[in-house]
Amino acid sequence: MQVDLAEFWPRILQATNETLIMVGISLFAATLIGVPLGILLVVTRKGGLVQNNVVFKGISTIINFFRSIPFIILLVAILPLTRFIVGSSIGTAAAVVPLVLFSGPYIARLVESSLLEVKSGVVEAAEAMGASPWQIIIRVYLPEALSSIVLNLTIATIGLVGASAMAGFVGGGGLGDLAISYGYQRFETDIMIITVILLVIIVQGLQTLGNLLSRKIRRQ
């Protein structure tokens, strides 16, 4: 039996809001984790500003470990940790924990890739002028790679949207939860189609915004 969409729209809007909140909070927290890790991967690697093989291999191993775990498995595996941190294993707040652990290492690799695109000559010139490693990071690496970082963060954000939908399998809230609860389990095709359309709109909007910001930064 199909639901009355006129009566169901408030729930759809609420689910959309939950998805945006999940993605926003997760992106913010994951960026706080991923950007510093990405910087450390670049400056501690062989030939880096503060070369340290032990630190580089340690961070790289941890990142590779988390990146090798499929999100749906990570989601279930850390349920006890999620319950400890937020007091529940279901709902929007609970979905943020695995989303951060999933996207943080991913962002670290993306930032690493962006920073490695910075021309070595620019870095060497800053070193020749007596700039400290910290000054080079702040005044050379990040400004030069900012356009690329914005694009890569856009990619990470879109990945978070997909992962947040997957969190619906364990009651994570948002559009994914709505699609599973009504579109899949209750065979409400209308709800499934609407959630898919909304997710596509969100992704397209994020990609367009990311492209615009990247182009604006590149022209400065």
From TrEMBL:
Residues crossing the lipid bilayer are 20-43, 55-78, 84-108, 149-171, 191-213
Chief location of this protein within or outside the cell: membrane
Question: Which of UniProt's keywords are assigned here?
Answer: Cell membrane, Membrane, Transmembrane, Transmembrane helix, Transport
Which CDD domains does the UniProt record give? Answer: TM_PBP2
Return the InterPro entries for the record: AA_ABC_Transporter_Permease (IPR051322), MetI-like (IPR000515), MetI-like_sf (IPR035906)
Name one matching Pfam family: BPD_transp_1
Q: Where, subcellularly, is it found?
A: Cell membrane
The residue ranges of the ABC transmembrane type-1 domain are 16-210
Transport found in the keyword field: yes
Tell me what topology the record assigns in the membrane: Multi-pass membrane protein
Q: Does the keyword Transmembrane helix apply?
A: yes
* The family this protein is said to belong to: Belongs to the binding-protein-dependent transport system permease family.
Please give the name of this protein. Methionine ABC transporter permease
Annotated source species? Halobacillus seohaensis
**What does UniProt list as this organism's lineage?**
Bacteria, Bacillati, Bacillota, Bacilli, Bacillales
